[in-house]
Amino acid sequence: MRMKTTDLTRIYRLGPSEITAVNKVNLEITEAMFMAIVGPSGSGKSTLLHLIGLNDYPTFGKICIDDADVSLLSSSEHRKIRLLRMGFVFQTFNLLPTLSALENVELPMALAGKSSKEQTEKALRLLEAVGLSNRLVHRPKELSMGEMQRVAIARALANDPEMIIADEPTGELDSKTAKEIIALLFEINRKKKAIVVVATHDEKIVDVADRIYLIEDGGLRLQS
Q: Which of 76, 128, 164, 199 is deepest in the core (most CB within 10 A)?
């Protein structure tokens, strides 16, 4: 996957006021890149990820994937791209509380129409890969925060995404667990050649990134 944004802008209107959360961002994301987006709270990090992840529509500008403009596709077409080509990891994990670890990982595959056998076999492999083969039947409330984030990463990998988008994935974790999660994301990037885009305050993530971007007042610039 290659993604390019052109003058990407997101403006929120609150009554008579306007807030420019993302301001004319021009960005190129190439295969196998590990990219970190840093900046103060409220600078536009999460909004930019929502746009890149096709969870929101830009006010102006466009997003191209493999040279095709996807900015104005329908919400159902966006959902298909998210399901089949992207994986998402959130600070708050976003696991379904009524499902076991195994069932949470199977869910994206079920939505993609894969067979029950394929869902289970792959979910087992993914949970083993993230060190949770002994926690398959546990629900989120029975897992530690680090274990929940590992389940979330396994779920993000369920449909072999070309891009993983992570919003503060270590924000709720202790330093030891955070290091383990960073190492796991780095391994996924290097071994699976998946793009990893992370919005973060964590300097340990910044240390392993191929490119670091600073966002301030919605504007993005390359740091290194």
A: 199
